[in-house]
């Protein structure tokens, strides 16, 4: 049976990264839990708000748009599903991100008009992934307001329903 040393390895900072690297191994330290999961529990007490946010972040595709429909931010799930980096998509309108943008943009117009009035809405959206795949998201859109009630941005929560949408399209094609 080997005993573990209670000595801590000296740590050096890499010039290229802020990650702390143990001097003996030269490899970055690996964290066992995502940051959100580590902050959800402090001192044995669970912070429910942080825990819910962490769970939501892991489960859904989340994107934020300005009131003009321009993409401001997106989580890793959303970006990975489409195969793009945030810098490649930031500033593009929601309509530009859709597959067959002109046709879908017309169909999405009433939703975005309602969002501009401060109303929530939902839609099934078809996006074109970088690799050419069709990606279908069942989305809920909700406007966020500041304390004075001014509309700030639109938050999109989406769940990938690509498999079920492809099956539905196949059945529709057979019926036509």
Description of the molecule:
There is one protein chain. This protein is an alpha+beta fold and 176 residues long. The chain is 36% helix and 28% strand. The chain has seven helices and nine strands; from the N terminus they run ββαββαββααααβββα. It has helices spanning 35-40, 48-59, 76-82, 86-89, 94-97, 101-116, 162-175; strands spanning 11-13, 20-22, 41-42, 45-46, 61-66, 71-74, 121-128, 134-145, 151-160. The chain has a five-stranded antiparallel sheet with strand order 6-5-9-8-7, with helices on both faces. A two-stranded antiparallel ribbon has the order 1-2. A two-stranded antiparallel ribbon has the order 3-4. Strand 8 (134-145) and strand 9 (151-160) form a beta hairpin. The radius of gyration is 22 Å and the shape is globular. The N and C termini lie far apart (71 Å).
Outline of the structure:
The protein has 176 residues and is an alpha+beta fold. It is 36% helix and 28% strand. The chain contains 7 helices and 9 strands.
Topology of this structure?
Blueprint (H helix, E strand, L loop, with lengths): L10 E3 L6 E3 L12 H6 E2 L2 E2 L1 H12 L1 E6 L4 E4 L1 H7 L3 H4 L4 H4 L3 H16 L4 E8 L5 E12 L5 E10 L1 H14 L1
Antiparallel strand pairs: 1-2, 3-4, 5-6, 5-9, 7-8, 8-9
Question: Which characteristics define this entry?
Answer:
alpha+beta, five-stranded antiparallel sheet, single chain, globular, 176 residues, two-stranded antiparallel sheet
């Amino acid at each position: 049976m080997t005993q573990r040393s209670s000595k801590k390895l000296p740590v050096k900072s890499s010039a290229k990264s802020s990650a702390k690297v143990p001097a003996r191994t030269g490899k970055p330290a690996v964290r066992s839990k995502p940051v959100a999961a580590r902050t959800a529990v402090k001192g044995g007490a669970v912070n429910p708000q942080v825990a819910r946010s962490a769970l939501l972040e892991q489960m859904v595709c989340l994107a934020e748009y300005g009131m003009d429909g321009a993409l401001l931010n997106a989580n890793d799930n959303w970006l990975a599903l489409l195969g793009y980096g945030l810098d490649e998509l930031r500033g593009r309108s929601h309509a530009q991100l859709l597959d067959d943008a002109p046709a879908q943009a017309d169909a999405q117009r009433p939703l975005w008009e309602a969002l501009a009035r401060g109303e929530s809405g939902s839609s099934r959206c078809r996006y074109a992934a970088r690799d050419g795949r069709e990606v279908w998201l069942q989305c809920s859109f909700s406007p966020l307001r500041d304390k004075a009630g001014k509309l700030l941005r639109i938050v999109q929560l989406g769940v990938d329903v690509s498999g079920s949408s492809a099956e539905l399209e196949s059945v529709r094609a057979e019926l036509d």
